[in-house]
Structure to design on (226 residues):
């Protein structure tokens, strides 16, 4: 089944404890990205990757890192999480960035930082 | 800069009713418009993608239309069911990186 998977689905952590949220897609997509969703603010892009080893900042990159060593994986790293990073996180992928292609989203990771 | 708006923010209808959800966008030079469904606290499920060259797309009881000249897209749901209750989001790619610009969503409640 074609899909985007994320792990973990739920995570409660404390301020400053490094964490990684994994994202994997099995559709051979070139483009992958991360969004966060917050009440009243909607979905905002954090980082994106147009291809392996090519990543760039989205609208809200502060406090996050990403890497794209393999085409199928695009982990989101929070080096020193803070309470304002409590949010619902989504990974997405698409065949390319040409704008013609449908984007597929993962099931989401609900992160709470205390 | 593309802006996407969805009105109303919430809608409640009785089961069986046909309904229309609205999506407006400011930049008519869009590549496509995508409709998603989101159940509370869950992921986004892609429902329909309309390319800029298309006027409408259909999937089962869903029909999405696109009118670039007026900056509007609609999602028509026929014979609504309680299982259709969810938040519906529309989005259009804008700018570098394939970023999707989302509307704020319409929360639909279908009452039995």
């Amino acid at each position: 089944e074609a899909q985007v998977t994320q792990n973990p689905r739920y995570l409660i952590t404390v301020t400053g404890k490094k964490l990684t949220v994994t994202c994997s897609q099995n559709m051979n997509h070139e483009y992958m990205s991360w969004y966060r969703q917050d009440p009243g603010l909607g979905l905002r892009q954090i980082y994106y990757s147009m291809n392996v080893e090519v990543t760039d900042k989205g609208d809200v990159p502060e406090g996050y890192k990403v890497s794209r060593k393999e085409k199928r994986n695009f982990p989101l790293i929070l080096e020193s999480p803070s309470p304002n990073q409590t949010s619902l996180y989504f990974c997405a992928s698409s065949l390319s960035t040409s704008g013609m292609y449908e984007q597929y989203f993962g099931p989401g990771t609900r992160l709470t930082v205390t | 800069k593309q802006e996407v708006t969805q009105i109303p923010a919430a809608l409640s209808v009785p089961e069986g009713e046909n309904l229309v959800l609205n999506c407006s966008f400011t930049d008519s030079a869009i590549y496509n418009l995508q409709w998603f469904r989101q159940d509370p606290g869950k992921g986004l499920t892609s429902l329909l993608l309309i390319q800029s060259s298309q006027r409408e797309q259909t999937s089962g009881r869903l029909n999405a239309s696109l009118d670039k000249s007026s900056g509007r897209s609609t999602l028509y749901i026929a014979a609504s069911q309680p299982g259709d209750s969810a938040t519906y989001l529309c989005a259009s790619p804008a700018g570098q990186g394939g970023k999707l610009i989302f509307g704020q969503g319409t929360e639909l409640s279908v009452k039995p």
About this structure: DSSP finds no helices and eleven strands in chain A. Chain A has a mean pLDDT of 94. The longest strand of chain A covers residues 42-51.
